[in-house]
Amino acid sequence: MNESIHADATASEPQDRVTELIEQQTAISEVLRAIANSPHDLQPIFDAILDSATRLCRADLGVLRLSEESGLRSVAVRGNPLLVSQFWSSFPALAEKESFPFRMAANRLPTHIADLTALEGERDDYWIRAMNAGVRSGLAVPLLKDNEIVGLITLTRQKVQPFTDRQISLSRDFAAQATIALEITRRERQYREAQMALAHANRVATMGQLTASIAHEIKQPITAARAYAAAALRFLDKSPPDVAEVREVLTCIVNETGRTSDVVDRIGSLIKKAPPRKEIVDLNVAILEVTALTRSEAVKTGVTVSTQLAELPRIQCDRVQLQQVMLNLIVNAIQSMRDVEDDNRKLRISTESIEPEGVCVAVRDSGQGLRPESLPRLFEPFYTTKPDGTGMGLSICRAIIEAHGGRLWATGCEPRGALFQFTIPAN
Ligand SMILES: Nc1ncnc2c1ncn2[C@@H]1O[C@H](COP(=O)(O)OP(=O)(O)OP(=O)(O)O)[C@@H](O)[C@H]1O
Ligand SMILES: [Mg+2]
Predict the structure, then answer these.
(1) Domain ranges for the chain
(2) Which of 30, 194, 236, 422 could form a disulfide with 408 if both were Cys (CB 3.0 to 4.6 A apart)?
(3) CB-based contact 4:11 (threshold 8 Å)
């Protein structure tokens, strides 16, 4: 007797039922562990779900597809290794609308095909490929969220061997788990995107306030200087010209313009105004938090992020301010890579300890690089080459780093890209 049928036939016996329940329990905790271990990355979660589903439903191959605009895309394939590689080579990754898998998902209910060879009416290109790949029995369970199809799990066997009711109900549980995992990561991503948007909106709002107060403070001396200049012209028009009066008003003009440049100088100190809060910080952990925050932005832009974090001395610093520096540098790096070729978008973040007691942090990208004319102006307030940029990011970064007694600088990279580095002394 066939081994799987044998397993099904005896599963009604109490001992087997207990074993089966334990197996199910283990499968659920494996999936939960995968979710807990990788809240940002769905792949290990999908793999864990499919591993359990194929094993517990005694299938030879399990495939998970996710909905996208043009159909269903295979994102995870598990089971017999030979069949897995055969799947990737003989089936298109995208099952288009109207294809066999897509129509099964559209049912919104599990579809059980006891014998593929006996199937009528569904014999399209997909069916032929499945037949050629040796698939004989199959089970397709849609992933539904609010009755919307978000994906499809298919489990197949190479022999005509129908799935039992218990296996069908089990596969529904796995589909529900996959839907929950998708929802968790979607929310997490939304939350992070909102945080990013907030960080930028904050800066824009601060900029708005800053600009208003600068405009307000600068307007007065400019108006005064203008009135003095008009007076000077009148004193010159006298005959003879009243040189002493002209000298006096010119002095006033010099004073007033001096006031305007004081206001401009104050912009820098305004940014630095709040003294940094000093707390003992594990900089590597703080950096990883920011990397997580920017992950979805990186994924969206197709950027591969790598980190190389060395053991660091504990430093006293303002954690939130340093995270803001990292956020600005990382967002700049990601933005600089928007126009470079796909497989070449690399962001590398590294830390090292330096002598005497301190740390050095480097953010390196493979983006468009720094234009020679930009180099001397990068850290100037309001210097930007972006249509929607405020040009305040780097000047704020430098102000923060200098308030911590450190240094921030930029260099070009070969063959492409930019490297921003900063140091922070340990005390
Ligand atoms: N990693 C980088 N690669 C290439 N150019 C960069 C990079 N980082 C910054 N720059 C250049 O420096 C300019 C100033 O950067 P800064 O962060 O101060 O402002 P921004 O990014 O333009 O605006 P905002 O930060 O408000 O969005 C940028 O407009 C860009 O031209
Ligand atoms: Mg910026």
Answers:
(1) 3-189, 196-272, 279-425
(2) 422
(3) no
- Closest by CA to 38, choosing from 161, 184, 204, 234, is 184
Rounded distance between C-alpha atoms, residue 324 and residue 196, angstroms: 11
The residue nearest atom 10 of ligand 1, judged by CA position, is 332
**Helices 283-301 and 165-237 meet at what angle, rounded to 10?**
100
Name the helix (H) or strand (E) containing 385. none
Which residue's C-alpha comes closest to atom 8 of ligand 1? 332
- Which residues have C-beta under 5 Å from ligand 2, the single-atom ion? 332, 393
**CATH annotation of 196-272:** 1.10.287
What is the best residue among 394, 411, 421, 422 to mutate for testing ligand 1's pocket, by most ligand atoms within 8 Å of CB?
394
What's the pTM value of the predicted model, to 2 decimals?
A: 0.53
Q: Which CATH architecture has domain 279-425?
A: 2-Layer Sandwich (3.30)
Q: Decide the pairing of beta strands 304-309 and 346-354.
A: parallel
The set of protein residues with a Cβ atom below 6 angstroms from ligand 1 is: 203, 328, 332-333, 336, 365, 367-370, 374, 378, 383-386, 389-395, 418
Confidence of residue 7 (pLDDT cuts 50, 70, 90): very low
H or E element, residue 362 = strand 358-365
Radius of gyration of the chain (CA): 32
Q: Are 299 and 41 in contact (CB under 8 A)?
A: no
Cα(214)–Cα(201) distance, rounded to whole angstroms?
A: 20
**CATH architecture of the domain with residue range 3-189:** 2-Layer Sandwich (3.30)
Question: Are the folds of 3-189 and 279-425 the same?
Answer: no
**How far, in Å, CA of 51 to CA of 329, rounded?**
40
Nearest to 312 by CA among 356, 276, 278, 360: 360
Write down the pLDDT at residue 2.
Answer: 43
Ligand 2 midpoint to CA 265 (Å): 21
Binned at pLDDT 50, 70 and 90, residue 215 comes out as confident
